């Protein structure tokens, strides 16, 4: 006769993994009304796993030395069996990761997922975004192409403008005034280490989610168990379907549009003596690059680029309204989409040469980004009438 | 019914039949490889491409081995410190014929013939621009004075290039009987360089179709699954 279920087993008495998994991933109560935007967290997890898996195999074949890095990446693309696939998967993964990250954050902004009691969920998420950005920056230097070198030089020059500490600290960290062998070695180690640090912070982020429970499109937390559904099978099946669609887009990029993921200039080996005609960042850094260029002062540009992210960190204290969803806040419903549009416009501007028109577009878009978060949000949350 | 089955078998046997065709009729890229071997390779290399990689263009292992064996590549120095060379193997890169940059420049009026590994990708205009350059040589118009080692070419912004016109009608014979006109060779070699700059492109598309088909099927199944699960949810 089998033992009654209530008696905990050998493993359960020592490490209750099974019951925790059952509680958090099977019976976990989810709001009934989540829309497709709530699948992007799952997409991010899967993409991150693919990045680490493909990255490990790329690292096995990569040589972090300025005389051999470029050739080792060429060998991955040409001679290593399935190397082209691993590399495309990794490069496509960056695009998918950032696209999902930005959509995931936009969803939180729209439905007010940063508000009490989810402030730490929001902050760990933004922390993850910064970590992904640092990792992506370091990773982009590794192939040691022209854009790797000159893109990193732009960032380095921006960092040098920080008064007093900018130059000495960046020289100390990168082992020289310009990018060289030491810098490449260190950026490789940074890229590799950050990947695993990100996994740890994802664990924090998900733990925080399981403590405060997911937000939902109405912005009103379910109060009775009747308003919820267990995670499995309802959201596992829905995420499963969404993941298939997501992977189809990912596969489309990797197999059919690989040139979209990369700038041709990066297939020319880095040459510190030849500056490319126009230095363009990858699309996911373009909004910040546009801000950097839109400000006549270098330090000012750096401060505003950093500030554009800092306002997100400050958002839980800038927006004091208890109403979460923008759909119930008439003014936010107008202002926030314009802020989203500004971000997109900054991205487009960042990928074009800095002509007069694009500079004006960047400045206007940047202005609205800051006005939305620093002026509209605090004022509206004090005097709005919510529906 | 029998007839239908017979026709189906006939149709199913067509793809393998077609697959054997390229052995006698070559693709533009395969002809382009010949142009590279006999013309371009006199001045250009493809540092990141191995002789063995040319199997992608239908070159047999024996042909690869004998082509490589005809090329000398650097092999350290002898006891006197003089550079030594050895015959290349299929695992060696297709290096520039010049032993170093200085010799390359010396032989070409101070200009270095560019490496062709990724040229069709990094050159603005890509493979089409390579073709255009090869076909845009013209006699220098009266009144235009060009430096030594400069050739009039209308495909370029400055209307001149350091590469002497490399192609002439009938300078090589294609084994498949295609007439080796300048036009034909330019088209072929730019197709070849395009494939070299985008390694494994055909394999990539082929696997991509399987991947997409598989994911589409999975999407369909998971869609039906989640519909059925959500239909039976407690109200």
Automatic annotation (TrEMBL), chain A:
Cofactor list: heme b
All residue ranges annotated as the Cytochrome b/b6 C-terminal region profile domain in the record: 221-387
Record-annotated Cytochrome b/b6 N-terminal region profile domain positions: 7-218
InterPro entries: Cyt_b/b6_C, Cyt_b/b6_C_sf, Cyt_b/b6_N, Cytb/b6-like_sf, Cytochrome_b, Cytochrome_b_N_euk/bac, Di-haem_cyt_TM
Record bears the keyword Metal-binding: yes
Membrane topology, as annotated: Multi-pass membrane protein
CDD domains: Cytochrome_b_N
Cell compartment(s), UniProt: Membrane
This protein's record includes keyword Membrane: yes
Keyword list, A-Z: Electron transport, Heme, Iron, Membrane, Metal-binding, Respiratory chain, Transmembrane, Transmembrane helix, Transport
Cofactor mode of binding and number, as noted: Binds 2 heme groups non-covalently.
TM region(s), chain numbering: 37-63, 84-105, 120-142, 149-166, 186-212, 240-257, 299-318, 330-352, 358-380
Subunit structure: The main subunits of complex b-c1 are: cytochrome b, cytochrome c1 and the Rieske protein.
Protein purpose: Component of the ubiquinol-cytochrome c reductase complex (complex III or cytochrome b-c1 complex), which is a respiratory chain that generates an electrochemical potential coupled to ATP synthesis.
Family, as annotated: Belongs to the cytochrome b family.
Listed PANTHER family: CYTOCHROME B
Protein name: Cytochrome b
TrEMBL record, chain B:
Residue stretches spanning the membrane: 207-225
Highest taxon of source: Bacteria
Annotated InterPro entries: Cyt_c-like_dom, Cyt_c-like_dom_sf, Cyt_c1
Keywords: Heme, Iron, Membrane, Metal-binding, Signal, Transmembrane, Transmembrane helix
Record domain Cytochrome c: where: 27-197
Signal peptide span: 1-25
PROSITE patterns: CYTC
Location in or out of the cell: Membrane
Subcellular location, principal: membrane
Region called Disordered, residue ranges: 72-97
Protein name: Cytochrome c1
Species name: Gluconobacter kondonii
